[in-house]
Amino acid sequence: LLGSSDGQPLRRVAKEVNTLAVARTLTGAEGRTIRRRASKALGAAVLDSLDGDQEDEDLDKLSPAARVQRTIREKEQLRMKRALKVIMTAHLSNLTSKGPSGWFALIGLVLVAVRVVIGAFLHMLQDDIWTKLKSWFGRRRNGKSKKTNAGSNSGPSGAPAGSAA
How far is CA 135 from the centre of its chain? Predict the structure, then answer.
């Protein structure tokens, strides 16, 4: 579908999809898992893109094969964006042609998108906080480092010196 030069198969399949049923699934209870996964994936993608800013600086240092791979990847991303545009246009057309039920489904999908974006932000925040907490409490325990805590009052088995092992 995505590889066709004229895009006709992609447009045909996008028109034949029951967009109203897809919208109901995504906005309903069955879509909860999909929404959660989408939030996590979006948050991870944003974090990866923020970490990948150094990639542009190393373009001159890339080997010729790596440059070719990068060019191919950029072309694939451009094709994917074009295909998504066709799919989204067809879905919007399907929903708006269904009358009030389609309009409400479209509003529901917009709300789902907002929920996914907010969820992605919360996942990014959670990952950041979790990383900081691990770094703070992984190195220190009760204000002492692990080495100081382990050697201060423990016996040979790691139990306190006064207790039986």
Answer: 24
Mean predicted lDDT score pLDDT of the chain: 76
Spatial contact of 146 and 139, defined as CB atoms under 8 Å apart = yes
Q: Give the residue with greater pLDDT, 162 vs 128.
A: 128
Evaluate whether 39 touches 126 at the Cβ level (below 8 Å).
Answer: no
Are residues 69 and 143 in contact, defined by beta-carbon separation less than 8 angstroms?
Answer: no
- Cβ neighbors of 28 (< 8 A, separation 6 or more) are none
Pairing mode, if any, of strands 144-145 and 140-141? Answer: antiparallel
- The Cα 70–Cα 90 span in angstroms is 30
* pLDDT mean over 67-84: 86
Residue 91 burial (CB count, 10 A): 19
| CB neighbourhood size of 59 (10 A) | 10
